[in-house]
Amino acid sequence: MDRKLLGSGVLALGFALLGAACAGVEESPPSASEALAGEQTAYRARAAQGFAISPVPLNTRGLDGRRKAQVGLGSYIVNAASDCAVCHTGPAGFLSGGVPFFLDGAGHVVWTRNLTPDPATGLHLTLHQFKEAIRTGRDFHPGNTVQMIVMPWTTLRWSSDEDLEAIYAYLQAIPAVANAVPPDNKNDLPLPASTPFPKHDYTDGDVVRKLKHDQSSFDPRRGLAISARPEPAGLDESTRAAYGLGSYIASAFTHCNDCHTHPDRTPDFARINTAAFLTGGTVFAVPPPFQPVFHQVRTMSANLKGAEHGFFAEPDATWETFRAIIHTGTHVDETPPRALGFPMNLVAANLSNLLEDDLHAVYIWAKNLPPTTGASDQERQTYARLCGADTDCLAGETCYGVTHECVGGPCASDADCGACQTCGASACQPPAPDSACLASAQ
Fold it and tell me: What is the helix, strand, coil percentage profile of the chain, to 5?
């Protein structure tokens, strides 16, 4: 039987068992043994999928069945639910680190860590230190005195102990790669050494909720606790269980907020910027090596949850459309289908590895989230297309040689142009050198 179909079936069983428990109803609740059986079956399905999708062979010699399943679950998180490889895979190999992130024009830069078990250059943290780093942002890299930057620990911190331990187990099982990472330059930035983790409460959104189920994996109840927005009313039991699971995946692993909320945190960095939640607008400068591969220079994250302009407010934002976008990496709702922009094209490739019910749960969560209203609900620009000559552009466009992007297309507003371009004289103009949009590009 197809492994994804198997996973879909067993997860459906898990939803049926967990639905009433999540809803808090008293009529015919599942017994503790039935709920546990559903959780264990779902755990095994995700672990099996994790082994199937790992891009590298895994060393599980000497591990009992429980530990092997934990490695598989860790692979499922790293290679499907989350997207660790996008940042941590460099020229040296899978999760070997060494990818630079330039923070500003003053020379501040951080490098992604080597997460492989190489004894000299790889992940040297104990499990306790690893969990502390993820939960508090503490940077254990030698010489660093302020917390991690770029690394999305503010999202991952809300995952359960069980799932963090699975990630760690997977990182211990992948092939070691010798790759020394250069030192960061960030210690003079105004950052704390770490941020305390509120172990008993979720404090990152509009509602403070009790934080439980540390020893559960992919628990819908934890997902309901860590959703940044108020829970929608009127969901039936099974939908609420799926909503909770989708919230857990999206709020603890996929980093939706990090890219699709701009800025993603409040000015004091205390919590998620829910006033602009998932309305897009984050600008990304496509790394030069990727530009000729994706034919993109600059991108802007999409508006997902704006009440007027968000993708999920559109009548054709169905499960079938969402699934096709993730699995094809294209905007199938456009004619002709347009490729997703960076880095969503890479994220979608990982999300397509999710078991069907897990991906569907992410859709249920996103579709049912309360919409975001206000000034942040805007149409967002598509990506600026790479060119080397006018012939690389569409009819009527020219190739702007300074930034190698196509300009001159017809427009009625800036929203009709590529990221950071402006509409002038009914034609898309290249961004000015002092453009605030350019300056904001990550």
Answer: 40, 10, 50
- Count of beta carbons in the 10 Å neighbourhood of residue 333: 16
Residue range 115-126, pLDDT digits in tens: 999 999 999 999
Backbone angles phi, psi at 65, to 5 degrees: -60, -40
The helix/strand/coil state of 83 is: coil
pLDDT tens digits for 273-328?
999 999 999 999 998 989 999 999 999 999 999 999 999 999 999 999 999 999 99
**Which class for 236: exposed (0-12), middle (13-18), buried (19 or more C-beta within 10 A)?**
exposed
Nearest by Cα to 260 from 277, 243, 274, 244:
277
DSSP characters for 332-394?
TTSSSPEEPPTTHHHHHHHHTTS-HHHHHHHHHHHHHSPPB-STT-----BPEEB-SSGGGS-
pLDDT (tens digit per residue) in 170-214: 999 999 999 999 999 999 999 999 999 998 999 999 999 999 999
Burial class (CB in 10 A: 0-12, 13-18, 19+), 97: buried
Each domain of the chain, given as residue ranges in start order, spans: 201-368, 384-440
Instruction: Look at the pTM and tell me if it is higher than 0.85.
Output: yes
301: its two tokens: 């994250």
End-to-end CA distance of the chain: 43
The string over 155-177, giving b where at least 16 C-beta atoms fall within 10 Å of a residue's C-beta and e elsewhere, is bbbbbbebbbbbbbbbbbbbebb
Contact assessment for residue 123 and residue 116, using Cβ atoms and an 8 Å cutoff: yes
- Cα 40 to Cα 340: distance, rounded to the nearest angstrom: 35
Q: Residue 417: what are its φ and ψ, rounded to 5°?
A: -110, 175
- Least confidently predicted of 38-47, 130-139, 204-213, 228-237: 38-47
Q: What is the DSSP letter of 80?
A: I
Asked whether the beta carbons of 370 and 247 are under 8 A apart, the reply is no
Distance CA(35)–CA(252), nearest Å, equals 22
